[in-house]
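Subject: design request, 320 residues
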């Protein structure tokens, strides 16, 4: 058995175990009853929020290119962004390479510089996610049951993130093997270009615009979870804290090297919901409902880009 297949089975097993843990004691009839409560109007608002978040992410990415002297069409960059989302469903954490490869094919910008700007962007988002994570970790919940339980959950999450880091490291070394080695070796050969892309944030003239776009990326993303909550399991007043916390934990769930955060996303979201006083069936349903909603949006938009640019997409096997 090859290393690739072993890793595939390992991650699949982890996903199955996490899903089993989340779904235990949940009855199918009770789960299906929750679907009748879905408000499609709120789901529509959530879809608008998701599109807005993606569009502002695209604008921020273009700002990062401005110090490099490249003129990129908004449509080209947006297509690269949309195509990268469903790529993670096929190969975990592959969106970096797909996004950079596609934009190189469309605009001719060196792959290493594209990749550098993407990593710079991810670092900014990482500061937001983990900054909010630690704020929530050391703050009180509105519906907390015990301080120890909350801190224990966050401790487990931190431990999980550390484990994920090392798992991803070994995963890339084995799953991508020769191709990943080729990409890394090419980046080393063009290290100056990669550094230019990575450090582009220092050379952006209008840093307030960069900050503004970062805010406008995350506010619609927080609103996405607000509308999904209002449209599924909660008709009552929802404060600002719960949607923000769900958005943060959802992103940590996506980090796990499984196809589309399967299992890890559901585990984190369901636990946070229960800590905020929701019933288990509501928590589990919302985890699956929100995950399915995001995945379907990614697939539909990614498929649209794929069908309109299939000649370019199918030549991305050699990104360099």
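Subject: RE: design request

Done. Sequence follows.
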């Amino acid at each position: 058995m090859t290393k690739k297949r072993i890793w595939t089975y390992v991650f699949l097993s982890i996903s199955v175990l996490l899903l089993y843990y989340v779904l235990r004691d949940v009855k199918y009839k009770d789960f299906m009853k929750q679907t009748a409560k879905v408000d499609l109007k709120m789901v529509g608002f959530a879809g608008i929020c998701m599109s807005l978040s993606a569009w502002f992410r695209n604008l921020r990415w273009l700002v990062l290119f401005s110090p490099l002297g490249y003129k990129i069409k908004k449509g080209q960059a947006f297509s690269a962004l949309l195509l990268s989302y469903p790529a993670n469903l096929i190969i975990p954490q592959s969106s970096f390479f797909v996004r950079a490869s596609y934009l190189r094919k469309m605009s001719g910008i060196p792959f290493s510089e594209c990749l550098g700007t993407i990593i710079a962007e991810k670092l900014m988002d990482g500061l937001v996610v983990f900054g909010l994570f630690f704020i929530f970790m050391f703050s009180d919940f509105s519906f907390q049951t015990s301080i120890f339980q909350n801190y224990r959950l966050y401790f487990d999450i931190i431990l999980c993130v550390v484990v994920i880091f090392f798992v991803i490291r070994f995963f890339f070394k084995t799953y991508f093997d020769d191709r990943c080695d080729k990409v890394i070796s090419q980046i080393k050969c063009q290290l100056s270009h990669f550094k230019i892309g990575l450090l582009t944030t220092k050379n952006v003239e209008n840093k307030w615009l960069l900050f503004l776009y970062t805010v406008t990326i995350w506010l619609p993303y927080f609103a996405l979870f607000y509308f999904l909550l209002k449209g599924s399991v909660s008709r009552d007043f929802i404060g600002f804290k719960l949607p923000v916390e769900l958005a943060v934990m959802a992103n940590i769930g996506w980090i796990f090297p499984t196809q589309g955060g399967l299992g890890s996303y559901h585990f984190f979201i369901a636990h946070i919901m229960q800590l905020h006083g929701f019933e288990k069936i509501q928590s589990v349903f919302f985890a699956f409902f929100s995950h399915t909603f995001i995945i379907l949006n990614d697939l539909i938009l990614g498929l649209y880009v794929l069908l309109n640019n299939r000649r370019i997409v199918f030549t991305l096997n050699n990104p360099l």
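The radius of gyration is 20 Å.
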